[in-house]
Amino acid sequence: MNQVEKVNLLDFDRQGLREFFAQLGEKPYRAEQVMKWMYHHLEDNFENMTDVGKALRTKLEAVCYIGPPKTLFDKGAVDGTHKWLLGMDGGNAVEAVYIPEPTRGTLCVSSQVGCGLNCQFCSTATQGFNRNLATSEIIGQMWVAAKHLGNVTHQNRRITNVVMMGMGEPLLNFDNVVKAMSLMRDDLGFGLASKRVTLSTAGLVPMIDKLSESIDVSLAVSLHAANDELRTELVPLNKRFPIAELMASCQRWIARKPRTSITFEYTLMKGVNDQPEHARQLIKLMRKLPTCKVNLIPFNPFPGTRFERSDMETIRAFQTQLLNANILTMLRRTRGDDIDAACGQLKGQVLDRTRRQAEFRKRLDEGAVHAA
Ligand code: SAH
């Protein structure tokens, strides 16, 4: 077997790893031993797995490897935010961002090379879509960041939270994203509680339902407008899954997970969606989901955008209007914008985008995305 055919163990969740070891004629608990090395000790060299017998280590070396993505570039911002540009394959790269705060450290992870949803105010959209990331490429972002930061699972956690809010629409890469999130949650993986792993979606209704049946994680929904006309303009996916359908799927989510809450992201753009009238519409919508919260994000500009960030005064007034209506409303501080690491500023490096983008749009129009 040559190098090319070797299996990357970062592509397996715990169950998959157990099955792979069974195929090798090994006991499943051996898989768990190796898994602990991979995620608790961030070890990628079988030689150093001292409680794994020499014969098994030699066998593993022959058929598999532990291959996180390569760091092409990494940079820290003045506020402690750190960004990695990670090489995925011939010329493609995605970004992951670490945001330290006094009581937690959040890693923002990408799910696709580029994005095909074309949200008008997002820099990733200008890149087009190239491909879905493999499980190893998703969990690998956390692996690289954890290693860089000296994270030790269950002991010295630098990464306490993960948000699937980097490049791409995670629900369009469903299987790989769910597997990666199960490794984030698994005790033998990074061991994070369900509240600390959040998937953010632009609103793929059927996949929101599927997610609630597949894994226990938190949900964030990118709303940005509370009327269909404006939302369709900003988030074209709204044409396929309008607000009423989206809200109904959120209600089903809450019905299945009564103790959870959903976060609605609302990026504030000057004169576009930041007026008292917009806040009123949002309040009306949120009444249907009394346990949910709103996360206001000041728009982060990028070259070529036609949008501007709302004034601080307008942002505060919008927040106050929601708070006065008893809606839990947070204002997301903009972090890492001196290194273009803020929401919607991630670009990575996306090749060969036009053809795949056209194919993707066609499938979206044909209504086939939820079968992706
Ligand atoms: N595709 C997923 C994951 C992206 S998460 C989703 O849409 O939810 C990134 C969040 O930042 C989303 O809420 C997105 O709408 C928002 N965002 C995108 N561009 C932005 C920008 N330029 N400024 C502020 N927020 C932005």
TrEMBL record:
CDD domains reported in the protein's UniProt record: Radical_SAM
Cofactor section: [4Fe-4S] cluster
Cofactor note: Binds 1 [4Fe-4S] cluster. The cluster is coordinated with 3 cysteines and an exchangeable S-adenosyl-L-methionine.
A biological-process GO annotation: methylation
Domain of life: Bacteria
Positions of the catalytic residues: 95 (proton acceptor), 343 (s-methylcysteine intermediate)
Catalytic reaction(s) noted: adenosine(2503) in 23S rRNA + 2 reduced [2Fe-2S]-[ferredoxin] + 2 S-adenosyl-L-methionine = 2-methyladenosine(2503) in 23S rRNA + 5'-deoxyadenosine + L-methionine + 2 oxidized [2Fe-2S]-[ferredoxin] + S-adenosyl-L-homocysteine; adenosine(37) in tRNA + 2 reduced [2Fe-2S]-[ferredoxin] + 2 S-adenosyl-L-methionine = 2-methyladenosine(37) in tRNA + 5'-deoxyadenosine + L-methionine + 2 oxidized [2Fe-2S]-[ferredoxin] + S-adenosyl-L-homocysteine
Residues that coordinate or bind [4Fe-4S] cluster: 115, 119, 122
GO molecular function, a single term: methyltransferase activity
Record SUPFAM superfamilies: Radical SAM enzymes
Positions contributing to S-adenosyl-L-methionine binding: 168-169, 200, 222-224, 300
InterPro entries linked: Aldolase_TIM (IPR013785), Methyltransferase_A (IPR040072), RlmN_N (IPR048641), RNA_MTrfase_RlmN (IPR027492), rRNA_lsu_MTrfase_RlmN/Cfr (IPR004383), rSAM (IPR007197), rSAM_sf (IPR058240)
Domain Radical SAM core: 101-338
Main localisation: cytoplasm
Its EC number(s): 2.1.1.192
Subcellular location(s) of the protein: Cytoplasm
Pfam families, alphabetized: Radical_SAM (PF04055), RlmN_N (PF21016)
Keywords carried by this UniProt record: 4Fe-4S, Cytoplasm, Disulfide bond, Iron, Iron-sulfur, Metal-binding, Methyltransferase, rRNA processing, S-adenosyl-L-methionine, Transferase, tRNA processing
Primary role: Specifically methylates position 2 of adenine 2503 in 23S rRNA and position 2 of adenine 37 in tRNAs. m2A2503 modification seems to play a crucial role in the proofreading step occurring at the peptidyl transferase center and thus would serve to optimize ribosomal fidelity.
Note: Reaction proceeds by a ping-pong mechanism involving intermediate methylation of a conserved cysteine residue.
Family statement drawn from the similarity comment of this UniProt entry: Belongs to the radical SAM superfamily. RlmN family.
Protein name (database record): Dual-specificity RNA methyltransferase RlmN
UniProt source species: Dyella humi
Lineage: Bacteria, Pseudomonadati, Pseudomonadota, Gammaproteobacteria, Lysobacterales
